[in-house]
Design goal:
- It is built from 23 helices and no strands.
- It is mainly α and 417 residues long.
- The termini are far apart.
């Protein structure tokens, strides 16, 4: 059999026949309307052509602008519609990340970086495209020198919006511009984080007295998250040996949003005598924390009955996966408190005499497996199980989807009469 002749590439033939001037004109014409082609040209020529250092530097900057031109139509669409589908958002985000990485090399000319920044800032100001983090990252990456950062801070400040102005404040602080930082900081002193920011500024400047005064004022007037401010003051109390103040602040820190983790951490910093008095206060307020954390703390303390009481009061989590910590806790308590855990599992069945989706029937069937396990394996009360299951079957005789889903997973479901 004759070997098939390889087909020649007609485009390659034409390109070989063209003069350098014609090829250059063709590429420029294509690249002028296709940002992706323009970017590919810069990347290719940078690798394969003999370029001067200045030409290489310029090509890297032009590749950045080509990337921006490539993504900006899609970014415009996202900004106009307040976001878009995941595919489009991911694609624009990917191209913004590429721009950020190219800027991070430190090899992009100032003119290119400033041009790009002026393109990015309007999208940051509208904040409507769902890519705020990526846009801010590009803006920051475009700043190499103090003058760049100051220009960015001034641009953020001119937007007169809370988040950009807060970013301007951070930049002024990093630049060491005390006057501008304090001016912007004084405009918003509400949350604990605001007071913590100002207190640490004074502390870093060596003005310890003013720092402590601001922090104490924040403890009186601050709203919202107070963790950082309390931690700042507790460190100062520890340094000065004020043990009572230190423990009081750590108590507030641990109990503000009490978890098993904060409970354990607080215990570590207490002496046995201190913990004996403080734990009583923690347990007295335990009912105010989340039921999930109550269960964890009770289990940690070996107070199993109290833990199970919280579980049954809370009820079975309708959307938890089988490995959820709460369900694992219930499984550990099955033999110790069988009737209470049975009651807990029964709450997971919900209403059994109503029409529902097949997906919900399947969920209930998995819970029914646990109910059967309690009756048959733990309580050794198969008669009770058959009575209960028989009534459920009778109540749902005209729901074939219900019966099918239960028959798939509940042992012996079809044999119950």
């Amino acid at each position: 059999m004759a070997k098939k002749k390889k087909r020649q590439n007609p485009l390659a033939d034409l390109l070989n026949a063209a003069s350098p001037e014609v090829l250059a004109h063709l590429i420029v014409r294509m690249a002028s309307s296709r940002p992706d082609v323009r970017r590919e040209c810069f990347e290719y020529l940078k690798k394969h052509a003999s370029l001067s250092p200045e030409q290489k530097r310029r090509s890297e900057g032009e590749a950045v602008l080509a990337l921006w031109s490539e993504l900006v139509p899609d970014l415009d669409e996202l900004d106009d519609h307040g976001g878009g589908d995941y595919g489009l958002t991911d694609q624009v985000g990917y191209l913004l990340l590429q721009i950020q990485e190219k800027l991070a090399t430190g090899r992009i000319d100032k003119e290119i970086r400033r041009e790009l920044l002026e393109e990015v800032l309007p999208f940051i100001e509208t904040g409507n495209g769902g890519l705020d983090d990526e846009l801010y990252a590009v803006a920051h990456a475009a700043c190499y020198e103090a003058a760049d950062w100051r220009h960015l801070a001034q641009s953020f400040e001119a937007m007169k919006k809370e988040w950009p102005v807060s970013r301007a404040r951070v930049i002024y602080r990093k630049l060491g511009d005390r006057k501008k930082y304090l001016e912007l900081r004084s405009r918003k002193m509400e949350g604990g984080a605001d007071y913590h920011d100002l207190a640490t500024y004074y502390w870093d400047q060596g003005d310890r007295e003013q720092a402590l005064a601001v922090a104490e004022q924040g403890m009186r007037l601050g709203k919202g998250r107070m963790d950082d401010l309390r931690q700042f003051l507790s460190e100062r109390a520890r340094e000065t040996g004020d043990r009572d103040r230190y423990l009081a602040l750590q108590f507030a820190q641990a109990t503000d949003h009490l978890t098993l983790g904060t409970y354990k951490e607080f215990k570590k910093i207490c002496t046995p005598g201190e913990w004996g008095a403080i734990e009583v206060r923690i347990l007295a307020g335990l009912c105010s924390t989340s039921e999930g954390e109550q269960v964890k703390i009770r289990m940690h303390r070996g107070e199993y009955e109290q833990a199970v009481d919280v579980l049954t009061r809370r009820g079975y989590p309708l959307h938890a996966w089988d490995g959820a910590e709460e369900l694992q806790t219930a499984a550990k308590m099955e033999s110790r408190f069988p009737e209470k855990i049975l009651k807990y599992y029964l709450t997971g069945l919900g209403a059994l005499k109503v029409n529902d989706t097949r997906k919900e029937y399947a969920r209930k069937a998995k819970v029914m497996v646990k109910v059967r396990h309690m009756y048959v394996d733990i309580l050794k009360a198969e008669d009770r199980w058959r009575d209960f299951a028989g009534k459920v079957i009778k109540d749902n005789l005209h729901r074939p989807a219900f019966q099918e889903e239960f028959a798939k997973v509940v042992p012996g479901w079809c044999e119950i009469v």
